[in-house]
Amino acid sequence: MSAAAISSSTPSTRPTPTDRTTERPxxxxxxxxxxxxxxxxxxxxxxxxxxxxxxxxxxxxxxxxASQAHAAIETRLLASSPADAASFNSEVVSAAQxxxxxxxxxxxxxxxxxxxxxxxxxxILTKRWEPTxxxxxxxxxxxxxxxxxxxxxxxxxxxxxxxxxxxxLNRSSGVHxxxxxxxxxxxxxxxxxxxxATLPNAVVSTEQPRNGGAxxxxxxxxxxxQDPRMSQxxxxxxxxxxxxxxxxxRGQVAQDVKTLADNRMLRGSGVVLENVGKVARPVGVVLDxxxxxxxxxxxGNRIGENTGRTASGVAGGALGGWGGAVGGAAIGTAIFPGVxxxxxxxxxxxxxxFAGDQAGKGLFDTVKGWF
Length: 371
Known about the structure:
With 371 residues, the chain is an alpha/beta fold. The chain has 11 helices and 7 strands.
């Protein structure tokens, strides 16, 4: 059992095809094995330095597993020896100082908020096409090849066309076909919007521009969820008459495919940022709290220069980490949505935490010099 064992002790929650019974192991069991391995059988002395090194090394490979292991080991040590638990926390901080800045909690908070905002601002998206029978031609629906294209592209569609809505213009109406087409198209769009407006809490709008105005969505249906991160959005393309593949419809499908891919990427980024933030925040809080405690002890168990400087570094690092994570994620999204969002958030959070830590300590040293 070692750092590698910690890193591999948290498997995917999704079982493999050959092992549907795989379950997440109990962290307390692994904590017991780690503590036992680090305990001298001759006198019962716990090597807290080894435990701390294992957890810190594991944090480089699998932060989530390391966070769980840290909490479980601390709980186990507290039950037998609070002194060992305190020593263990000190050793974790010492081992992690090479790669964990003060203010990691702030970076974690920023990453968490950036991930949540991505999920809220990008509801689960469905692209759907719905046909309506034309009062002018008496025909409606999608051709077989177009339906096959929908299936390949991940686009939902209504198989049978809606009937012509009331007020639709036919050949005997005495108007030009172009006017009839525009009128019938608007009536079909509004009829679809009216149907979706009957859904509970649905917010329906029409003629919404997408892709910088290159695409206009006929009907947009927003379905709020109790958890705003799980809200849904349905974007509907309304077609009147018999509709098949053409350069126009293929272009519209291609843009819809891109929009769906962007939505999946952004939502995936949001989940990653949230998960990383949830791990970084509690680990950062523990490390920051322990580092302040060590500084307090160095000052003779009173608030002195070491305590003030460390606390200033933590505060500056938290602010820098939070701002860096949020700003980095935003910049990453602008440059390359999805992967750029995650990378930008992580890099921004780390840089912000390091810079904030140093700025906070520097500010303390400057203010201290005034007295």
